[in-house]
Amino acid sequence: MEHVVIIGAGFGGLYAARALRHEPVRVTVIDRHNHHTFQPLLYQVATAGLSASDIATPIRHILRKQKNTSVILAEVKAIDPVQKRVIFEDGELGYDKLIVAAGASHSYFGHDAWEAVAPGLKTVEDALEIRRRVLVAFEAAEREPDPALRSAWMTFVVVGGGPTGVELAGALSELARHTLVREFRHIDPSKARILLLEGAGQVLPTYVPELGERARQQLEALNVEVRTDCRVTDIDEEGVSIGDKRIDAKTVLWGAGVAASSLARALGAPLDRAGRVLVAPDLTVPGHEDIYVIGDLASLKQEDGTPVPGVAPAAIQGGRHAALNIARTLRGLPRLPFRYNDRGSMATIGRAAAVADFGKLKLSGFLAWLAWLFVHILFLIGFRNRFLVLFSWALSYVTYQRASRLITGEIPPLLLEDHHARALEARKDDGAVRRSQPMEPARTRA
Predict the structure, then answer these.
(1) Distance (Å, rounded) from C-alpha 425 to C-alpha 398?
(2) What was the pLDDT predicted at 441?
(3) Measured at the alpha carbon of residue 212, what is the angle toward residues 208 and 215, in degrees to the nearest 5?
(4) Which of 144, 152, 289, 355 is positioned for an S-S bond with 248, CB 3.0–4.6 A?
(5) Taking the chain (446 residues) in consecutive chunks of 10 residues, what is each chunk's mean pLDDT?
(6) What SS3 state is found at 267?
């Protein structure tokens, strides 16, 4: 019985595994995490709308009924296509057929130092780190007596006006203007300044200009400052530089670019400028017909010359197609070329605000938001997740509340001793804090 190894349990890898459930093969799924993450909703975790468990499901649970499939928790370090092995830090595993669905990571366009101060959004860990930074920023602003520093804490910059950046900016605005608005005593969260910076001439640059303009209008209605034709030249802990202009901001979030997994280089195949594998029409690696590359790691042109987009539907279709070609090979049939069925693009902006492009049908506002909601609920793995997400969204829509406002991980020291002294001095006159009382540390709010 042939052994099919799948690297990565994202959309592509998971759907490939499920498509092989009735085939006479052994399947091994390898992932460095024990869960499948529904990435389109990571921004909701990052902005406290959902908890991580609402959008992540254990891989073993998803595949529990699939008797021909096993799961390994490990990180693949290298691939030996000659010896047909995948190599871990502490071992290796042979294969007959290999599906590489390792996905992509953040790209900072050569400025790797920016990653420490401007986290991106690809994993649950990224989402929790962004949530921590955002909530800590409001806590620090609450304790900051210096107006300039308080303003910097309450300024949030999102770099990149693609779907991730648009969704983050809109959700941050709703968090500040509605959820937190009555919970602080010394700051007004609704006065938070949220900027979205995009280097192209419109937000959502892959969409038609009409929808890009509608997205801008909906963002501005949420008090998000949208700046296009705006290229960031530097990012540090104190803010962002755009040429000789400076924006003081303690919280900078990255949504500007992605880079293919380093495993692409291990295959010895030709790569495109983004580091993705230039696959054959049937999704195999040129020179290695037993290796398939799918999802964000694959570079393939459609019949009209446009590239297959790096979105979840493309990864799902690619995973199913790779499984189909493996099944056809086992039966002695020729492999088929991959044809991507583009069912449209959608991006949510905020409460009842979104844009959707279904070819001839283009929607914005409430109808687009309903379509976006339906599609994302439909693709969530597991009934429990669908129910929890739908319930959480319904509750949030009615009450404006976001239930997952936990600050997790290490909370940095927000104030030094001289900062305590300045805060006490600034507030002694209004009775908020008496000189004889020490300032209480910022408390974690659920």
Answers:
(1) 41
(2) 42
(3) 140
(4) 152
(5) 96 96 97 93 90 90 95 96 94 97 89 94 94 95 95 97 95 93 93 97 94 95 96 96 96 90 87 91 95 95 88 94 97 96 89 89 91 80 69 68 76 51 51 41 38
(6) coil
Task: Round to whole Å and give the CA distance between 289 and 209.
Answer: 41
Beta-carbon contacts of residue 125 (< 8 Å; ≥ 6 apart): none
- Indicate the DSSP class of residue 271: B
Return the closest-CA partner of residue 203 out of 322, 43, 364: 364
Between the alpha carbon of residue 342 and those of residues 15, 70, 317, 320, the distances in Å are: 17, 32, 10, 15
Contact between residue 146 and residue 422 where contact means Cβ atoms under 8 Å apart:
yes
Based on the number of CB atoms within 10 Å of its own CB, is 148 exposed (0-12), middle (13-18) or buried (19 or more)? exposed
Contact 274, 105 (CB under 8 A): no
DSSP state of 440: P
Catalytic residues: 167
pTM of the model: 0.87
- Which single residue is written with the structure tokens 């290229």? 231
State the pLDDT at residue 394. Answer: 67
Helix (H, G, I), strand (E, B) or coil at 274: coil
Reported as type and span, the H/E element at residue 369 is helix 366-379
DSSP string, 302-329: -TTSPBPPSSHHHHHHHHHHHHHHHHHH
Residues sharing a CB contact under 8 Å with residue 272, sequence separation 6 or more, in sequence order = 278, 299
Instruction: Please tell me the total number of residues recorded for the chain in this structure.
Output: 446
Distance between CA atoms of 433 and 5, rounded to whole angstroms?
63
Longest dimension (CA), the chain: 85
Tokens of 180: 């937190």
Q: Which residues of 62-97 are buried (b: 16+ CB within 10 A; e: fewer)?
A: bbeebebbebbebebeebebeebbbeeeeeebebeb
Report yes or no: 157 and 240 within 8 Å, Cβ to Cβ.
Answer: yes
* 431's tokens: 């009775």
Spell out the alpha helix ranges (H) of 156-226.
Answer: 163-174, 209-221
Residue ranges of the alpha helices (H) in 104-181?
124-143, 147-153, 163-174
- Neighbouring CB atoms inside 10 A of 237's CB total 10
Amino acid at 76: V
Contacts of 303 (CB under 8 A, 6+ apart): 339
